[in-house]
Amino acid sequence: MPSASPFEGGLICGINKSAESSSSVVIGGGAGAAWDCDEYFPMCDDLFTYTVSVVHNNNNNNGSGGNNNSMAPHLGHQLANNASNHHEGQPQQQQQQQQHHLAVDVSPDASVVGQHHHHHHHLHTHHVQQQQQQQPNDFMVHLLPLGGVGDQTNPATNNNNNNNNNSNSMNNNSATSHKTIPVFSSSFSNGAWEKKLPADWDESDTIDWLFTVANKLGIPCEYFASFGHLRGSNLLEMNKDDFQSKYPNHGHKFYEAFRQLVHQIQLQQHSPAIIDTSTDLLGLQNTPAVHHHHQVHQTNNVDCWSMLPPPPSMEQNNYTAANGQPPENRLMANGGYCGPAHERGHYTNNNSAMDSSSSSYIYLNASANLHHHSHHQQQQQQQHHHSGNSKSLGGYGASDAIQLTNFQQHHHHHQHQHESYDSYSLDMMAADHYSENYSNSTPSSDPEEMMAASDGISPPMMANGPHNGTGLLKRVGRPSTSGNKASSSSSSSSSSSRRRKQDRGYGKLWEFIRDLLHDPKYCPSMVRWEDVNDGVFRIVQSEKLANLWGTIKNNPRMTYEKLSRAMRYYYKSKVFLPVLGRRLVYKFGPHAVLWKPDNPNFEHPTMEGDDVRHSVRT
DNA sequence: AGTATCTTTCCTGTTT
DNA sequence: GAAACAGGAAAGATAC
Fold first, then answer.
1. Which of A78, A105, A117, A269 is most deeply buried (CB count within 10 A of its CB)?
2. Above pLDDT 90, what percent of chain A?
3. Which residues of A182-220 are buried (b: 16+ CB within 10 A; e: fewer)?
4. Which residues belong to any copy of the ETS domain (predicted)?
């Protein structure tokens, strides 16, 4: 180990801790590197070298716990963004960006020769106001709070304000010291963690993942040091409080994101047969990280909804992949996959909360969305409309809820390494059952078969299906008063409630709808956008939609009538808003988040004017 | 165990 | 007349 690490105990954004050192340290892969960052940041091959002028007073420069950098929390993002710009093919050009928290003035600094390498950072760059001149890699960066909405929300920042005595002036050179800090791009580790099971994460993966989540959620990178020695296996053992204790104010978000990730991995790694890898049914080709252009805020969007089989009538929706790429890059350690579907224009939901707390996922998503826009508080919960790019990260939500009930309720015969997956063991069971019975033999990708199975017709599938202990199925809901309302009860009279404990976490209906709207397999064929700016969408195939929902919920009795009743309940909570006078048309309300796609109805420019996709009204 | 929330089911009546 | 809408009521499931 280098003896003079300026980043003792913390690497986050480098600056939180590094600022404690008053000496200028050159870090990174550039010619001026003073030490091998890889030793500290094994995943830091896209660290960049910057010389940063940190505005602070020097009351606490001895590196013993003082944190004299009030800007630290956001620095990583700022610089990451800066860095990413240089990768965008315009390294020599002046770029204008905006951000709410800091102003970053980048000026040439011949003393630093930071050569950041490689990588394709496709980051949104609205966040930083910078003026970059000449040498793309050599900067003097002055970090100044701009009035600091974000800073104010940052405990560390607040704590340090007294010391920092920031003047918010770019000219306050007397209060600055120049440091070179490592800058992590948002995807700085090449997503190594994405290719591993969390249990296999090393410390670097943990930090990398933290960065990814923080970046997507707009969480300041200030307490990552407290995670610095934690491996994935440690994370798996941590509960929400543990996360919270390590990361005040935002720990729960990391916790939720992590649990969601685990959940999704579980789903996917055990459901290979329903993953049409040739067609990326799960959108597996794409990394959940942020290294796809314009998708900075996308989180680990495992497209769980896409795991659904299409309804029988959806066969015309062949599963042809948009890109046809095999999902090797998303291979999980055990052959499972993990990844989003955004390359299909699918932003998948990712409503956080593993605990199914609506408030939680709404908050999470909202904050993520905001990060994406040039509005104010990143903590704001209002959904922002942002033409074309609001692919926010989304929650982990709906997906958290998805389970393939067809495959549930069967014992698993191999024990998995993640005992702490307790909450999701049912997923594993389901997946195991699936693997056991189908994956290795004759995976059923036939939609009808799947649907049939979900209807409880397939004994193997439903062997442990909803029953009341007597083998009889019990219907849910209000009892019929007429008593002879036949049909639905014909199956239900002897059929039981499909809603069982296993249903838990299936996701919410609105999320399901939202995700369909982001999935070219279902949009615009089953649902379609009517006015994407206002969140207005239409249900095209109402009964098929209901069937699909019923499939998810393992409820073959689902009808559009029932589904629509549930939809109407959302009016009260303002997740949906009624659209009067227009049948089958709904509108996302203020409490729905992450619904806006950047490619509504998956229109293809080349096909303009010649198909139904071209009907988005604005 | 109690409560809140979400969803499902059934229902009556209304609107398109 | 059918389909959809609106919303009350009741009950199941789940989270806290």
1. A78
2. 7
3. bbbbbbbbbbbbbbbbbbbbbbbbbbbbbbbbbbbbbbb
4. 507-589
